Amino acid sequence: MILVTGGTGFIGSHTTVTLQQAGHDVLILDNLCNSRPEVVDAIAAITGTRPGFVEGDIRDAALLDRLFAEHPIQAVMHFAGLKAVGESTQIPLAYYDNNIHGSVTLLQAMQKAGVRTFIFSSSATVYGDPQKLPLTEDHPRSATNPYGHTKLVVEDILENLYHSESGWRIARLRYFNPAGAHPSGLIGESPQGVPNNLMPFVAQVATGQRPRLNVFGNDYDTPDGTGVRDYIHVMDLAEGHKAALDYCQSLPQALLTTNLGTGKGYSVLEMIQAYAQTSGQDIPYQITARRPGDIAACWADVTHATQTLGWTARLGLEDMCRDAWRWDQQP
Ligand SMILES: NC(=O)c1ccc[n+]([C@@H]2O[C@H](COP(=O)([O-])OP(=O)(O)OC[C@H]3O[C@@H](n4cnc5c(N)ncnc54)[C@H](O)[C@@H]3O)[C@@H](O)[C@H]2O)c1
């Protein structure tokens, strides 16, 4: 059984589907601060199997002890956390508490229970402002906001833990920009409040919930002046997690650090155009000032993931837009 924290969230729910379809039992732990319990029904509808679900918090040590005692958990995939860069500058303590204290509490419970396989949601944000592209895993790390700092710290904690006792099998997966949705249209990204990422914003404009999109800056050093990112289909990302789990479980101990991206960057304007074409909707936008802290361009070198995990992203921009649009039209 795999414990999936944050399993009703965007990436955790899609990964749960992939894990179940690969034959794993899944137990989800989520406090629903950024997701809805109906996601469990949707996962059951897709896979034909209802994952276990516990509404609770990763900072609740007693609850964790109980879960590890009562279930045959072999590995943990840790998605639970807060992820909004802007918000993290306003409420940094909540970010440090949730993302760092939460991770430490979870790891302590694992250590107590003798469960030592851990797959962690890190982020390309740990590379800070890229000094060279594409980004390889040995690129220097830095953080320009509390959210990014929490990822750096947890990456370091995991490295310390790995060296402190034998038997830990740890994957630090640095995601680029997850987009798209499950092709069924039953699960997808549904942020509460104002979205932080481009694609949910584009979707809200396409579906008439917002009049227009703000494009933050068109004077970057990129082909059309707008920011370039490596968008990866969330189902590819889910497959990447399964590959990382298989890799870890095949070794007596492991500390894997790898990018999960496609190796290709698209600009904001290219994304808007692709989504408009797929959806047949107008996406009005206006160019506004650059957003503080945003970088010009960021995409992954995926050689390490391909060579180590035998995994590579298969889906492209059209798939991301098509699947996102199917989900975005749900009432
Ligand atoms: N989406 C991205 O662009 C992106 C990029 C890089 C890394 N990540 C990381 O991947 C992970 C998953 O991201 P996502 O996009 O699926 O986010 P999400 O908000 O959709 O999912 C996170 C889930 O964790 C739950 N949660 C939060 N704090 C919790 C706590 N203390 N206890 C229990 N549950 C808690 C939320 O309710 C939510 O369901 C996060 O750690 C995020 O930082 C995301």
Kindly list the characteristics that best describe this protein.
binds nicotinamide-adenine-dinucleotide; 331 residues; alpha/beta; 3-stranded mixed beta sheet; 11 helices; single chain; Rossmann fold; 7-stranded parallel beta sheet
Distance between the termini: 33 Å
Largest sheet entry = 7 strands, parallel
The ordered string of helix (H) and strand (E) elements is EHEHEHEHHEHEEHEEEHEEHEEHH
Distinct ligands, ions and cofactors found in the model: nicotinamide-adenine-dinucleotide
Order of strands, widest sheet: 3-2-1-4-5-6-11
| Portion in strands | 15-25%
| Mean pLDDT, all residues | 96
Radius of gyration: 19 Å
Topology:
Elements: E1 2-5, H1 10-21, E2 26-30, H2 38-47, E3 52-55, H3 61-70, E4 75-78, H4 85-90, H5 92-113, E5 117-123, H6 146-164, E6 169-175, E7 177-179, H7 198-206, E8 213-216, E9 228-229, E10 231-233, H8 234-249, E11 254-260, E12 266-267, H9 268-279, E13 285-288, E14 297-298, H10 303-309, H11 317-328
Nicotinamide-adenine-dinucleotide binds at residues 5-6, 8-12, 30-35, 57-59, 79-81, 83, 98, 102, 121, 123, 175, 177-178, 197.
